[in-house]
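Task card 7
Instruction: Convert sequence to structure tokens.
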Amino acid sequence: MDAETIYLVRVWVHPNAIERMMDWLRAKHLADVVAQPGFRFGRCIRLEQTADDGWVALAMIYGLESREALERYFASPIGAQFAEERKAFDGMLRMDRAWGRMELAHDNHP
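Output:
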């Protein structure tokens, strides 16, 4: 996974909405994000830990070619589209985001 910049989105989803969220991520959202210029990969991890209130935790990890590519993504109209799509989960979703530069990596190749 070669990427200079990592973008992490952590989401907590109400248990009643997790399958619908996974369907949206699987069928649409993850591919739509990775199709944006400068994105190299996207991964969705269903975390084993839950929030104290029982909400399910997911982590989306995206790799980008540069911080500039991430800034272009943030400034693009696609963000408004994704915000509109997330309205289907109003009251069922909590989210935070973080990003940074890849500092260290080690791959185990045989």
